[in-house]
Description:
Oligomer: single chain
Mean pLDDT: 82
Distance between the termini: 13 Å
Low-confidence stretches: 1-5
Largest sheet: none
Strand content: under 5%
Shape: elongated
Number of strands: 0
Structural class: mainly alpha
Number of helices: 11
Number of domains: 2
Helix content: over 70%
Amino acid sequence: MRKVLQDERLKKLGINSKSTFVSVLALLIFTIFTKSFFIALAFAFLTGVATRQYLKQRALKKKTLLGQVWPEVIDHLISGLYSGLSISEALSNLEQRGPEITRERFAEFHNEVRSGTEFSVALERLRDSCAHHGSDQIFEALLLSKTLGGGELLNTLRTLSAFQREDLILNKEIEIKHGWIKNSAHISAIAPWLLLLMIATQPGTAVAFSSPSGLMILILGVTLTLIAYLWMSKLSKLPEIPRVFGSIK
């Protein structure tokens, strides 16, 4: 768990540093283009916010892709167990046969089990590394079967695979229907600033926005744009399914 938290902090630090760099670069470019430091500052701030949101969405997309592979992981587990492999061997086998995005995690599990780490401890670390409600369900079923025994593990995994596939299909349909909200937020946020960028090349624009009233309009515009964009993004965001089995006791 500590490694997961450390990775999250490193990701946030990377996002902050990249967005800051883009903001500084945008400030230089827009200052040269508009001949106004205050207009360039507004554009630089919004560019930094947009960059931060883009990087967060890209990280979230990677997490979403990870959440879509668990039915396939279950299929490989069922195949391995059906061929006579033990639970540990079936999990370790996923470092080669499993989805590409999960192979590194299962390779770490395999190395830990091979080095003598107890199965439940290695599975806990694998669970923390995956950090998804879909993988939690799989590992909980495997742990109970490993600890208590059970001849219904294959049927349980098949049922779990069917449920997860149905959830993925439903979430995809909802995500498509929410796409127009995101597009509306992008258009609404960008349109007035594109207009300002078009008139910023005129000599009187820089002078007008350097006055107290002009600065007030810039500050108000940035504030309202930011509030509207974040509000629309929040409305279009799908609720994340909580992890019921967050840790193995």
